[in-house]
Design brief:
Length: about 450
């Protein structure tokens, strides 16, 4: 977990050096050493800040990062993998979806509220896991009560209820062994408990609707409905109810807010779309673009956002912005916003050799994914080195002829290449198939040669 969180996870993260962080990112992202170094240093600075005195730590703010590079080169993946590595609350937002205050649409503060909701879910899941065993025991007892109602205690100590007790334990054993799976019980299902009052935060229509829906849910809380369920499904529901009783939501909210404030990461994509092009301002949509920048500015600088889980300070949230900047330039952003992203890294376009490595090296490499998928159909799929190089050739060539979408082109190439096998796999169970250069040429050559066709298919 991020810094400022439970000891067993904090120790693990604090032990990661920048070099180790880069090594971890290398397992999933090919190339882009500059960007990896930048995020690794940003993470390490958070760990260093934790070791400062409280007074000094308050003054040290995150050094936000601006990634500049074409689509499909790994900008989002680097940020996402960093968040997974540290288990930090992380969301990706698109700057072009926000509107200036006064316009209909999402306001910029919604990114912080979304991050808090994500952190609450993370904290709730962790707390639920902690009480899992207690909840399982309580749920089991409730189910046994339904299957075998408890016998009232004896009137005197001379009348022990041992037979009933032995029957209950025998029933418990049968339940654990799965021998009661076909039995049906009647249980009352209730909605999960919610706070009686919540702040209506947000100005967009969907946010107001979501909050009103929650408030309406509170009005009807406690009205359960009776359903007949088989024992395994009933046990699952009862355990979930017991978990919700055992989880302290006030503690969850406090943990979530602290986690967001101290280790949250917000990835703002397409920030170049809100830059005023060539310094133009005051004409058409550029007014709104600059307005969105000015609305984002206080969030990045550090402000307090009102959420239904409490007030959240954004001073120490790490912001990573990214954009292709094909039409506009980073200097077209308003000066104040430029100053809040002091670290700038340029990501390189991917080459044919990069594609070869992307197809085979990462832990989640496409070739490994498709081999695993076909394996579920009892088909053994393999790729020769020549086939991999040929796929990379075709992907690079199509990127040159049409729009360059980087590594995303490999997904379309692979889908087209394995179209026949994916369709026929259930009928070819038990076969071993090796994809070679000839097979790749047969499936892709005609499409790649026809530039008009490749625009639509690849």
């Amino acid at each position: 977990m991020p810094i400022f969180l439970p000891e067993h996870t904090a120790t693990t993260v604090s032990a990661l050096t920048p070099r180790q962080v880069v090594a971890e990112l290398d397992k999933y992202v090919i190339g882009q050493a500059k960007a990896k170094r930048a995020v690794a240093i940003a993470l390490r600075n958070r760990i260093r800040r934790q070791r400062l005195t409280a007074e000094m730590a308050e003054e040290v703010t995150p050094k936000n990062i601006l990634m500049i590079g074409p689509t499909g080169v790994g900008k989002t993946e680097i940020a996402r993998r960093l968040a997974r590595l540290t288990q930090s609350p992380f969301i990706k937002v698109e700057a072009s979806k926000f509107t200036e205050v006064g316009y209909v649409g999402r306001d910029v503060e919604s990114m912080v509220r979304d991050l808090v909701e994500l952190a609450v879910d993370m904290a709730r899941a962790e707390k639920a896991e902690e009480v899992q065993e207690k909840a399982k025991q309580a749920g089991e007892e409730r189910l046994l009560d339904l299957l075998l109602p408890r016998v009232p205690p004896p009137a005197t100590v001379d009348e022990p209820n041992e037979p009933a007790s032995r029957t209950r334990e025998r029933m418990r054993q049968q339940l654990r062994e799965g021998r009661l799976a076909d039995r049906v019980v009647e249980i009352e299902l209730r909605d999960a408990p919610m706070p009686p009052f919540e702040v209506i935060a947000g100005t967009s229509v969907e946010e107001l609707g979501s909050n009103l829906k929650d408030l309406m849910g509170n009005m009807f809380q406690g009205r359960g409905k009776t359903r007949k369920l088989k024992v395994p499904e009933a046990l699952t529901h009862l355990i979930a109810e017991e978990q919700s009783k055992l989880v302290d939501m006030e503690s969850v909210n406090r943990t979530a807010v602290q986690r967001v404030e101290q280790s949250g990461i917000i990835f703002i994509d397409e920030i170049d779309k809100i830059a005023s092009r060539d310094g133009a301002s005051g004409h058409g949509p550029d007014v709104s673009r600059e307005g969105v920048q000015r609305d984002i500015l206080p969030i990045v600088e550090g402000t307090t956002v009102n959420t239904k889980h409490g007030m959240v300070k954004t001073d120490h949230i790490l912001f990573i912005a990214a954009g292709a900047f094909h039409v506009s330039k980073p200097s077209d952003l308003i000066p104040e916003l430029q100053g809040r992203f002091p670290i700038r890294v340029e990501l390189e376009p991917l080459t044919r050799d990069d594609f070869v490595r992307i197809l085979t090296e990462p832990r989640n490499a496409l070739v490994k994914q498709y081999m695993a998928l076909m394996g579920t159909e009892d088909m053994t799929l393999s790729f020769t080195p020549g086939a991999v190089e040929r796929m990379a050739d075709y992907a690079a060539r199509v990127n040159e002829m049409t729009e360059n979408i980087g590594a995303r082109r490999l997904h379309t190439v692979m889908e087209r290449l394995l179209d026949e096998l994916s369709f026929e796999a259930p009928d070819r169970s038990g076969e071993s198939i090796a994809i070679d250069e000839a097979y790749v040429d047969r499936m892709l050559a005609d499409i790649v040669k026809n530039e008009d066709l490749s625009r639509y298919i690849l």
